[in-house]
Amino acid sequence: MTIKSKIILPFFLVILAFNSHILIAQQSSSKKIIKQLDNLLRLNKLDSVVTLSKTFLDELNPKNSKDSLFFANLYFYNYLGRNYASGSIKNKEFLLKSISYCPKSTPGDSLKAVLYNSKAYLEYNLGKTMNSYKSINKSLNLLEEIQNPNAGYIMGAYLLLSNINAYYGNFEQAKHYMRLAEGIYAKNKKFIDKNTWELNGNNHRLIVIAKYRKIYMFWKLSKTSADSLQLVNTMKELEKIHSKPDFHKEERIYYSTALNHVGDWYISNKHDSLTTQKAVKTGLKYLLKTHYLVDKKGYPGTSWAIKYNIAKGFTRRNQLKKADSTMAVLFNGISKNDGRIPFFLAQKGLIKAKKNEKDSALFYFSKIVNKIHQGKDSLKADYSNFIPSKNYNETNLLIRISEELNYYYPKDTLINKKVYQIYTIALQQFENSYLDINFNDKQNKQLRKIIQGILKGKKTGHQNLQEKTILNKFEIFKNQLNWKKFYESRYTNILPELDAVKQRKQALASLLNKAKIADNFVQEDSIQQLINKHENYKNKQFPQLKLLTNVDFSIEKLQEDLKPNDVILKYILLENEIAMYQISKADFKVNLLSWTKKEENSLKEFIKKTRNRNYDLALANRLGKILLPKLDDKTTNIIINPDGILFNLPFEILKTKNKFATEIYNISYTSNLGFINYKTEKLSPLKNTHIYAPLYTKANSNSDVRNKVSFLKGANKEAESISKLFPSKLFNDESLTKSEFIKTANKAKILHLAMHADVNYNYPQLSRLLFSNNNKNETEHLYLEELYGLSLRADLAILSACNTGIGLEKNGTLESFQRAFTFAGVPATVASLWEVPDLATEQIMVLFYKNLKAGQTKSEALKNAKLNFRNKNINNKLSEPFFWSGFVVYGNNTPIIKSSNTSTILYIIIVIVFIATIIWYWKRENLK
Fold first, then answer.
1. How many helices (H) and strands (E) does the chain have?
2. Which pTM does this prediction carry?
3. Long-range contacts of range 45-53, CB-CB < 8 Å, 24 or more positions apart?
4. pLDDT tens digits for range 741-776
5. CB-based contact 457:425 (threshold 8 Å)
6. Which member of 3, 313, 655, 725 has the greatest number of CB atoms within 10 A?
7. What contacts 51, CB < 8 A, 6 or more positions away?
């Protein structure tokens, strides 16, 4: 089932929080009125609550803050009476009125927190999930300013945040908020349970709600066997609570709905071809049980949702007649505007497609698109006037329709055209409904499916605005949070008053790392709460930072800023295909290329062999033909924007035109197309190069690679040589620490780190730069996550250590040291793709700096350093790509030093002398 379950906010959550903050009216008459309204509400006399509160609102006018707070209370009671009689979006106006009357005071903020909580649940239950997310966060922000807020109220807010994050596919965040909710309950169990029983007659216990919400979360997002086990175990825990005599009638809704979710999970959590008949049988067992409880035992529950899932189960078992008849019942008496209809129609369409009834399947699928369409005008046959809805689930529904049409009718030309049109509107639907809490795995996969569907429906290599629009949207969706981090970091460089704030963020990041290392979830969640509070404080103190997130990106602007000899190659990995975009100043095209497991395994093998000093020429040629297009002769600079496993590949060593790519082109990389045109206002006014090269003097042995905490002979020689080429400050004494780096790094024009690095591929935030060989004292190492808290002013960072350019690739984004330095404010980095050899790296780095000093661009300087090193060692093992190709340039590619062009100046001088000579001869002849 893909429809969001809506369980009404338990009455007690409002009353629980409300009663703890509401009784603040100072006048005796106000207290009596509040008490009278409270009693009427408890007795469920909703009409009387509305009438009485409205009477006082009509008769009185607020004169001061106390009266204003009383008015806010009256509007809230008016809302409660109306909402429990009829949960309508129209009731929201009474909440907004109540919020507007809340004075700026502790009682006013307390009530406002309750109001935003109520607003969040109203919006959530009415399908306004994005608004709900914003409202619940406003509520929690207000609570942070209140001493001893109500524990039940806080727990309810965390449960809602867990649900919203689960709805949008943010599994880690959903689990985080669930842990917070469970932690609050564990600490305040007696208080929460006592107030639940005493304050209302509904008896909705938070422990029951929490178990249901946890099942909802795993139903939506569980992937691994561990997740699946937690889902089943949580259902067993709810079964135990249900079997006890104190399980109340009002709580049955959570039990029946949980059964429905678990049953649907067994049926739907895997692809059709992977779902076993045993799983379908188990799922139907849960579903038929909840159907029996709802139909025969009077349990509350959503009958249509249960029957819908039962129909899905019958469809999976190919009991199509049963499935069809079950679905037919659901359409009886349903309103034309009911939001469930598109999902019902999709199931009917699938059944018809399985029966090979093509016309019927198309009929139902077409009706779905018409139902999603929000425009007043009838939808055109080509969907050109389609207006998307705000329902995020309907994005997935459109993708599902397209996939099913492709699966059942792969060679039908007319259906292929229809599929392309559906994918096109799915992109609009995605854009209009997704919530940028985080660009998560679910959204990433959806977006890639949509892009692949659109590209497959078009002739590849054909330039038009639609293809540019698609890429623009992909970049904006995928990198929205990246832009936010990047621009905030760049902006804070010029705000010295933020120093204390930055230091606190850095300290919290360090504490968070320690908690993660210890697998201490409780401590981790507590620190994460402090970080959230810190972010709220920063946003209040420096509201202008939010303006920096409104960044526009366009391919057209990108093309304008390219040079005639530049070409960008952007890759997007899709299912069994790869989209390769080729962007130059005058041209834009995209090709869909085959990229199956075979090609992926070939690339993995090639990278592995190269790292093991066993370069494979045949694979280099084969991969070069796939990944490097034929470029015209004027192209000299290639900018690579990789994706997935391609982040681990140095394109320089691919073969093209019977040469290494680096022999023909200057190659640089970018993690984000928007960073290509990023330019600093001017070259850094700073002059010094800061070189950090720990001695590791207590190490027992030397190391030939920079991945072990041992003495690095090459790194120390490298540091000394570079310090003679540029005005430098060398940090390589025995007392070099992380603290010294943090204190001094923002005073450098160039940062050079010749040291050991330790990359954590499972938890990249725990990757670290090692300033000592003391692994026991974690405070001596600089963690990747701590780098995000720094504000650096360097033009270039050279990360002369192992694996600094690789890490965990997630949703098209690579978490690495290279990326962390970029967000810390450094526009260009040189990073490594494997365990680089110590002595060879020393030689290449010295050559690289000499080239930089000569005024070469960063990519040109690195290219020439590599080729110079290779040519010197052409007859020995050091010519292997392992020794010279491990480093790549990311980001801004302009020269570090703007050298004067001596030949140009000489030419100008000769011309001036020549002209002067002619003038002299002319004057002399005229004077004769």
1. 36, 18
2. 0.70
3. 46/81, 46/82, 46/84, 46/85, 47/81, 47/85, 48/81, 49/77, 49/78, 49/80, 49/81, 50/78, 50/81, 50/82, 50/85, 53/77, 53/78, 53/81
4. 988 998 899 999 888 788 877 767 678 888 876 555
5. no
6. 313
7. none
Considering only CA atoms, give the Rg of the chain.
Answer: 32
Cα separation, 212 vs 235, whole angstroms = 8
Helix, strand, coil distribution of the chain in percent, nearest 5: 60, 10, 30
Query: Is residue 657 a contact partner of residue 549, using CB atoms and an 8 Å limit?
Result: no
Mean pLDDT lowest among 138-147, 322-331, 874-883:
138-147
Q: Are 38 and 50 in contact (CB under 8 A)?
A: no
Tell me if residue 76 falls in helix, strand or coil.
helix
Q: What are phi and psi of 590, to 5 degrees?
A: -135, 140
Q: Which residue has the tokens 């640089």?
A: 668
Contacts of 652 (CB under 8 A, 6+ apart): 660, 661, 662, 667, 863, 866, 885, 888
Amino acid letter for position 282? T
**In the beta sheet, which residues pair with residue 570?**
581, 641
The encoded tokens of residue 117 equal: 């909580």
Residue that is written with structure tokens 């093309």 in the block: 559
Angstrom distances, CA of residue 517 to CA of 13, 174, 512, 757, 818: 36, 21, 9, 17, 22
Which tokens in the block code for residue 891?
A: 């980001």
CB of 508 closer than 8 Å to CB of 572: no
What are the angstrom distances between the C-alpha of 661 and each of 571, 664, 845? 17, 5, 20
Mean pLDDT of the chain: 81
Residue 650 pLDDT exceeds 70: yes
Q: What is the pLDDT of residue 797?
A: 93
Q: How many whole angstroms separate alpha carbon 579 and alpha carbon 592? A: 5
Q: pLDDT, tens digit, for every residue of 313-361?
A: 999 898 999 999 999 888 887 777 788 889 999 999 999 998 889 999 9
The first and second tokens of residue 516, run together, are 């993660």
Q: How wide is the angle at C-alpha 810 spanned by C-alphas 465 and 859, nearest 5°?
A: 70
Provide the pLDDT for residue 547.
35
Least confident of 127-141, 328-342, 481-495: 481-495
- Tokens (6 digits) for 402: 């397209």
pLDDT of residue 901: 47
Rounded Cα distance between 886 and 836, Å, is 6
Backbone angles phi, psi at 255, to 5 degrees: -70, -50
Tokens, residue 112: 């406002």
Start-to-end Cα distance in the chain: 105
Q: In what order do the strands lie in the sheet with 637-641?
A: 588-594, 577-584, 566-574, 637-641, 666-669, 887-891, 828-832, 796-800, 750-754, 689-692, 728-731
**Of 610, 633, 476, 619, the residue nearest 885 (C-alpha):** 610
**pLDDT-based confidence at residue 544 (cuts at 50, 70, 90):** very low
Q: List CB contacts of 466: < 8 A, sequence separation 6 or more.
A: 454, 458
Handedness of CA 462, 464, 466, 468 (dihedral sign): positive
Q: Position of tokens 């946003």?
A: 539
CB 208 within 8 Å of CB 238: yes
185, burial (CB in 10 Å: exposed 0-12, middle 13-18, buried 19+): buried
The pLDDT of residue 25 is above 80: no
Helix/strand/coil for 770: strand
